[in-house]
Amino acid sequence: MDLGIAGKTALVCGASKGLGYGCAEALVREGVNVVIVARGAEVLEAAAKTLVGAAGTSGTSGAFVKHVAADITTEAGRAAVFALGHDFDIVVTNAGGPPPGDFRNWDREAWIKAVDANMLTPIELIKATVDGMARRGFGRIVNITSSSVKSPIDILGLSNGARSGLTGFVAGVARTAVAAQGVTINNLLPGSFDTDRLKGTMAGAAQKSGQDFDTVWEARKKNIPARRFGTPAEFGAICAFLCSMQAGYMTGQNVLADGGAYPGTY
User: Checking DSSP bridges between strand 139-144 and strand 183-190, what pairing results, if any?
Assistant: First the structure.
């Protein structure tokens, strides 16, 4: 299927590895120009080089890959990105989730940091780009949130709260006048994907339980109906579809990708 977005320009956040990289790679393979941003300069540069290679084998021509080493959750980081321009046709917001823990141990600073990264930063990116998209008659914004929005995880209270706030905001703004001007805003909710973050979380769980890593890893898989973890590449493919011309009638939605782990009907 031709997604109809070759030649468009995308900003993909947190794209040096993991789910953000998966999204960037899927878009590049569709002929989309991509600007990737992440904090780690060395890993980001390596990711950009790999994406250039993917662009060269995609069968499309003229697509570029640019990278900006910056913290997108800061004003300075966003200024560095937008110094390249504001005319993004596609924006994929993504920031590392806040740490797990017991809510009794989180002070105001911890909450503000979580809300700033996982709610206010996506809102700032939407605010900076959505009106230009509307004027041009096309726009796709995809926010990478979490399956915990639908099924809260007790040790991820910071994420539950901050990402749920973003979800509520998107539900409203996606249904404003921009919807009639060709702009869609959706959230993509990952469950358990084979990423460094999942490995880190599982390592912590193993240490806390006194079990070895492989035992905890396999036990987690067994709780997923698909009996496996997702891959960044298949997550990226879902993201690319949400950014496509064919997805123009989908907006304000929370798209869950979790291998069937969420047990609810709705």
Answer: parallel
